[in-house]
């Protein structure tokens, strides 16, 4: 049962050390009770108190780690219904299904093609994380061999899909070093699958025919000592599947129902007859509230759109994506190359730098810290003012790199030109294009 802020405060060291980021232990306790802080942020909490607080302060949806090594991923750990309330923490892993009867040569070709699916977006490397290996004929050896090949020759984490204990045991033995997700414990095999997951310290998916049907299964498994669970209410009709995701999230967050406080797994691949429709369904689950989503195949157009949506959904709305303030070389600029300045909003930087690079005109790009705001927003907020920009140009070191005295400012910041000139006497302040797409022609004309 969750503790109140005062109950948590009584277990804290009461040093008011401020190392947790808030001024008092009482304030930290209140944040902990409301889910706005993590217990690990307090460096002095005793082991005894930590044990008492751990369960009470745990996220209402348990975080579960899938995979091992540098590509391991986390699902769950969410604390809010709506992204604007705080943020969503664990981006939905995206996977695709492979049947266990696939020929070895076909599996190798598919893995090679799927491993190549990586996309660069505003400085992030976007890629799918999972392969769901599905038992299609009850052949334990074929299942184990495919699992071993995927685990040893690809960077993908695994979901092992079978309701046959013998087949699943063979698959687990072949790839347990990769920490696969076992899918799925049902009413008919819950004891065997629970023991298999516990003996191998692996996460376990639980499948029922309704949300209500999950509760006795998860309760039984947690009583066995299993905590790393993923749930599937079994719904495959789109409207019902969506409603079940919402109900599970609400029950865990609003009602404190620990029996449903686990991340979910969804199967668009079982809900549509073509990849286009699967993609639409997967996009719905990424937004609300699929912990994992499984497609029938990976295709670049489908995958890229889902990965970009996921990046946007799971970016903290209170912390814009930024790049570091400083001088960036585009191409191989020299002492006569143009000097441009803009804000440190990541999207602005990557668009502007991309257009400069596309112009084939080597340039110096100055990035000023505006707390992640775009040009027009930063100017309106006073964070891209003329005197500040001028002072930044003086201090950043660009004057040691160029012989000329011309600075190109964004078109949307034309109003600051006079103030920049006052701060940089002797410099020519040129107003550049408003739209980044016009930068190549502008630079070439100069």
Brief write-up:
The protein is of the alpha/beta class. It has helices at residues 5-11, 25-33, 47-57, 104-115, 140-153, 165-175, 190-200, 211-223, 238-253, 275-287, 300-313, 346-359, 375-380, 386-396, 417-423, 439-445; strands spanning 64-66, 73-75, 94-99, 119-121, 124-126, 130-134, 157-161, 181-185, 204-207, 229-232, 265-266, 292-295, 326-330, 339-343, 363-368, 406-409, 428-431.
Please outline the helices and strands.
Elements: H1 5-11, H2 25-33, H3 47-57, E1 64-66, E2 73-75, E3 94-99, H4 104-115, E4 119-121, E5 124-126, E6 130-134, H5 140-153, E7 157-161, H6 165-175, E8 181-185, H7 190-200, E9 204-207, H8 211-223, E10 229-232, H9 238-253, E11 265-266, H10 275-287, E12 292-295, H11 300-313, E13 326-330, E14 339-343, H12 346-359, E15 363-368, H13 375-380, H14 386-396, E16 406-409, H15 417-423, E17 428-431, H16 439-445
Parallel strand pairs: 3-6, 3-12, 6-7, 7-8, 8-9, 9-10, 11-12, 14-15, 16-17
Antiparallel strand pairs: 1-2, 4-5, 13-15
Helix pairs in contact: 1-2, 4-5, 5-6, 6-7, 10-11, 12-16, 14-15
Give an overview in words.
This protein has 446 residues and is an alpha/beta fold. The protein folds into 3 domains: 5-57, Orthogonal Bundle (3-methyladenine DNA Glycosylase II, Chain A, domain 3); 64-313, TIM Barrel; 326-445, Rossmann fold, CATH 3.40.50.11600. 39% of the residues lie in helices and 16% in strands. It has 16 helices and 17 strands. The strands form 5 sheets. Strands 10-9-8-7-6-3-12-11 form an 8-stranded parallel β-sheet. It has a 3-stranded mixed β-sheet with strand order 13-15-14, with helices on both faces. Helix 1 (5-11) crosses helix 2 (25-33), helix 4 (104-115) runs parallel beside helix 5 and helix 14 packs across helix 15. The longest helix is centred in the middle third of the chain and has 16 residues, at 238-253. The radius of gyration is 27 Å and the shape is globular. The model has no long low-confidence stretch (mean pLDDT 93).
């Amino acid at each position: 049962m969750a503790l109140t802020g005062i109950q948590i405060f009584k277990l804290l060291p009461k040093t008011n050390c401020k190392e947790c980021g808030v001024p008092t232990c009482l304030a930290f306790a209140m944040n902990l009770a409301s889910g706005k802080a993590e217990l690990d942020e307090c460096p002095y909490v005793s082991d005894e108190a930590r044990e008492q607080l751990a369960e009470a302060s745990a996220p209402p949806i348990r975080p579960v780690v899938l995979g091992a090594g540098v590509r391991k991923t986390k699902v769950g750990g969410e604390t809010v219904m709506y992204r604007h309330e705080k943020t969503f923490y664990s981006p939905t892993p995206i996977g695709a299904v492979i049947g266990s009867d696939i020929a070895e040569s076909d599996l190798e070709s598919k893995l090679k093609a799927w491993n190549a699916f990586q996309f660069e977006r505003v400085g992030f490397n976007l890629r799918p994380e999972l392969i769901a290996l599905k038992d299609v004929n009850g052949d334990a050896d074929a299942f184990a061999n495919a699992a071993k090949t995927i685990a040893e020759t690809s960077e993908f984490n695994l979901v092992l899909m079978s309701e046959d204990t013998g087949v699943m045991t063979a698959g687990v033995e072949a790839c347990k070093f990769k920490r696969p997700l076992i899918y799925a414990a049902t009413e008919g095999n819950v004891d065997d699958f629970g023991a298999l997951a516990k003996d191998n310290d692996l996460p376990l998916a639980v499948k029922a025919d309704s949300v209500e049907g999950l509760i006795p299964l998860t309760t039984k498994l947690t009583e066995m000592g299993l905590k790393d669970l993923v749930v599937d209410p079994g719904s495959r009709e789109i409207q019902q599947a969506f409603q079940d995701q919402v109900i599970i999230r609400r029950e865990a967050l609003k009602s404190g129902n620990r029996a449903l406080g686990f991340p979910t797994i969804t199967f668009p691949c079982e809900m549509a007859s073509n990849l286009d429709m699967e993609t639409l369904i997967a996009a719905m689950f990424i937004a609300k509230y699929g912990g994992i989503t499984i497609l029938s195949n990976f295709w670049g157009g489908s995958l890229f759109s889902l990965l970009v949506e996921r990046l946007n959904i799971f970016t903290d709305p209170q912390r814009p994506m930024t790049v570091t303030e400083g001088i960036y070389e585009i191409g191989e600029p020299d002492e006569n190359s143009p000097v441009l300045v803009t804000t440190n909003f990541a999207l602005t930087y990557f668009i502007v730098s991309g257009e400069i690079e596309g112009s084939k005109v080597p340039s110096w790009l100055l990035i000023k810290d505006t707390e992640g705001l775009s040009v027009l927003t930063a100017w309106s907020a006073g964070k891209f003012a003329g005197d500040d920009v001028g002072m930044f140009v003086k201090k950043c070191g660009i004057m040691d790199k160029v012989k000329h005295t011309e600075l190109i400012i964004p078109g949307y910041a034309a109003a600051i030109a006079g103030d920049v000139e006052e701060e940089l006497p002797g410099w020519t302040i040129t107003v550049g294009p408003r739209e980044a797409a016009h930068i190549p022609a502008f630079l070439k004309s100069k």
